[in-house]
Design a protein that fits this description.
heterodimer, A: 11 strands, 0% helix, B: 0% helix, globular
């Protein structure tokens, strides 16, 4: 998906390990967010940011940290991975103005054993 | 708490059929309703609806919003196998909020 790049595409972790999911965008969008998608649950918001230096919690923030030091990057950190965090993670960005949709990256499929 | 309910959860049709996907919602401060198509990877944007009764159309896809009855429909005419996907409905709500609340999606399978 042009403009929003997520890395890695796949990752397997052991319980207790830490890792960072990367999200980068080149559209100069102020708003960025992280969602997780689980079977039967739809997409749920984890954390979001309305600009560099500003972050806030979404619906399911526990076990995840974020920071936003630049407009382009919005990494998601798992400090101590748990099997319940096995999911597909999507990063999304949104341009300025009320009439703009969010644009999603291709996702990171994360499995925690 | 905002709520988005999509129906049916899954649907199997033959090529050439017309399908209607439903999205109903409960929200304290409605701003807009969005439809996305998700194939194997990223959800891709289809429509954003803000006003009642105004149809949005793109090729064989169209959508309309009813703010009085709190629902939206997504129609696909002359379906093709390439329409097979999960269709997601989502809401922007709350003054100044850019958070999206998603439904669980409708999985559409189009068979030849």
């Amino acid at each position: 998906n042009a403009g929003v790049t997520q890395t890695p595409k796949f990752q397997v972790l052991k319980t207790g390990q830490s890792m960072t999911l990367q999200c980068a965008q080149d559209m100069n969008h102020e708003y960025m967010s992280w969602y997780r998608q689980d079977p039967g649950m739809g997409l749920r918001l984890i954390h979001y940011s309305v600009g560099a230096g500003i972050t806030d919690q979404g619906e399911v923030p526990n076990g995840y940290n974020v920071s936003r030091s630049t407009t382009e990057d919005f990494p998601l950190r798992l400090l101590s991975a748990a099997p319940s965090q096995t999911s597909v993670y999507f990063c999304a960005t949104k341009g300025g103005g009320r009439g703009q949709p969010q644009h999603f990256g291709d996702g990171t499929r994360l499995s925690i054993l | 708490e905002d709520k988005v309910v999509q129906s049916p959860l899954s649907l199997v049709v033959h090529e050439g059929d017309t399908v209607t996907l439903n999205c109903s919602y409960e929200v304290t401060n409605f701003r807009s309703l969005l439809w996305y198509k998700q194939e194997k990877k990223a959800p891709t944007f289809l429509f954003m609806l803000t006003s009642s009764g105004i149809e949005k159309k793109s090729g064989r896809l169209s959508s309309i919003l009813d703010k009085k009855e709190l629902f939206s429909i997504l129609n696909i005419t002359a379906t093709q196998t390439g329409d097979s996907a999960v269709y997601l409905c989502a809401l922007y709500s709350g003054a100044g909020s850019y958070q999206l609340t998603f439904g669980k999606g409708t999985k559409l399978s189009v068979i030849p």
